[in-house]
Amino acid sequence: MEMNDQLHQRIVKLCEEGDRFAELKQMSEAIASYQRALELVPEPKEKWSAATWIYGTLGDTYFLIKNYEDAIRSLEYALKCPAGNENPFLLLRLGESFCELGEFEKAKAYLYKAYQIEDYKIFFQEDDKYFKLIIELI
């Protein structure tokens, strides 16, 4: 679906603000900016590609602050949005979040899907424990 330019620019501006906060390690402010951006996305949110990247960014931010439950919730929403279920980074972060919570079977499923799309390069900057979890599946 196409969003009008003015609304799109407001969403982008809030996301850029969130990115600046994240770069400064001000994660609660970053999350607040991303959530304000998400509030601007029209309902049903899962129909808009903007929701894919906002939910994904929220999930990544929650992951970085070790809030794995909220990371999973955000990333699962992102997967329901346009092209979300074929985004290897979303799948990677979801698998990593499940791993951190000890849900290894779910973790393996998502990590393996990320691997199938991007090969080993998706794991280059990640902790080796995530790739080791799926080595038997390769």
Folded structure, characterized:
It holds the Pfam family TPR_6. InterPro entries: TPR-like_helical_dom_sf (IPR011990), TPR_rpt (IPR019734). This is Tetratricopeptide repeat family protein. The chain folds into 2 domains: 1-85, Serine Threonine Protein Phosphatase 5, Tetratricopeptide repeat (Alpha Horseshoe); 87-138, no CATH class. It contains 7 helices and no strands. The chain has helices at 5-23, 27-40, 49-64, 68-79, 88-100, 104-118, 128-134. Helix 4 (68-79) runs antiparallel to helix 5. 40% of the residues are buried.
Low-confidence residue ranges: none
Q: Could you give the distance between the termini?
A: 37 Å
Share of helix among residues? Answer: 55-70%
Main β-sheet, in a few words?
Answer: none
Number of DSSP helical runs: 7
Mean pLDDT, as a whole number?
97
Look at the helices and sheets and give the structural class.
mainly alpha
**How many strand segments?**
0
CATH superfamily of the largest domain: Tetratricopeptide repeat domain
CATH class of the largest domain: Mainly Alpha
**Number of spatially distinct domains:** 2
Order of helices and strands: HHHHHHH
Protein name: Tetratricopeptide repeat family protein
Pfam families: TPR_12 (PF13424), TPR_6 (PF13174)
Keywords:
globular; Tetratricopeptide repeat family protein; 70% helix; TPR-like_helical_dom_sf; Serine Threonine Protein Phosphatase 5, Tetratricopeptide repeat; single chain; mainly alpha
